Amino acid sequence: MANTALETGNAPIFRAGTSDAEIEAAALKALARRKYVVVAWQVGILLAILGLWQVASDLHWIDPFFYSSPYGIALRLWDWISEGTESGSLWYHLGVTMEEALIGFVIGSVTGVLVGVALGRNKLASDILSIYIKAINSIPRVVLAPIFVMIMGLGLASKVALAFIMVFFVVFANAFQGVREADRNMIANARILGASNWQVTRNVILPSAMSWIFASLHISFSFAIIGAIVGEFVGSLAGIGYLISIAKGTYDAAGLYAAIILVMVVTLGAEYVMTLVENRITRWRPQQHMDVQ
């Protein structure tokens, strides 16, 4: 019998006798086609939003003074890139914010994983310290920004501290829960085979919690940037938050939205890099297949 595969709509339907290679090839083709469809929709929605925004601004359905327009924002971005801002080069301000966010992200992530795994493995310690962790976590982060600026000054330290706080609790909560959700049967089997506590943690607990940890890292970098920008907004001499503060004070709507777009681009770029790192580190996991619709 000939090996054949029919396609109905987006999902391939296979006849009896179809080989595994044909099934896999058809599935890969359907996935590739689905990616193109997703990208096309994403680009189309973005263009529709920008086009409607531009038309609404040109026809004064919205006040351009407050809402600006995509064209005005693009001009402001180009002016910043080519000529710099009134307070210095755009790349200098972007570099300041990225430095603050990256330092806070790294320190917060490492500390969050270590504390989360340690307390997840020690129930007594987690029960004792849980009330303090919940109390600190309940404090609004925006309230901490002026406190850090007052104690540490307008420099790097206060922004890093706020970025650290923003990242730590997100990573800690996921690492802690990931440890608690580890397969107890695998832990018991490892102990039966003579594994020490450190070997169980390294070879069983951490791989099991890795999905939880990376899930938190995907969003925690954006929190690190938020922390750095909020700190700069409260008090700083440079950074994207400083540009936002200047734009707010001068009613520069185009500059305000331009700074926000810069933050969005940087955050999406960091998310892409994080996905690449996760895929490389967790190659041992079986690939998850989704129904193509």
UniProtKB/TrEMBL annotation:
It comes from the Bacteria. It holds the Pfam family BPD_transp_1. GO terms for cellular component: plasma membrane. Residues 94-274 form the ABC transmembrane type-1 domain. Keywords: Cell membrane, Membrane, Transmembrane, Transmembrane helix, Transport. It is found in: Cell membrane. GO terms for biological process: transmembrane transport. It is a multi-pass membrane protein. The chain crosses the membrane at residues 36-56, 101-119, 131-154, 160-179, 212-244, 256-277. Its main location: membrane. Belongs to the binding-protein-dependent transport system permease family. PANTHER family: ABC TRANSPORTER PERMEASE PROTEIN HI_0355-RELATED, ALKANE SULFONATE ABC TRANSPORTER-RELATED, MEMBRANE SUBUNIT. This is NitT/TauT family transport system permease protein. It comes from Rhizobium paranaense.
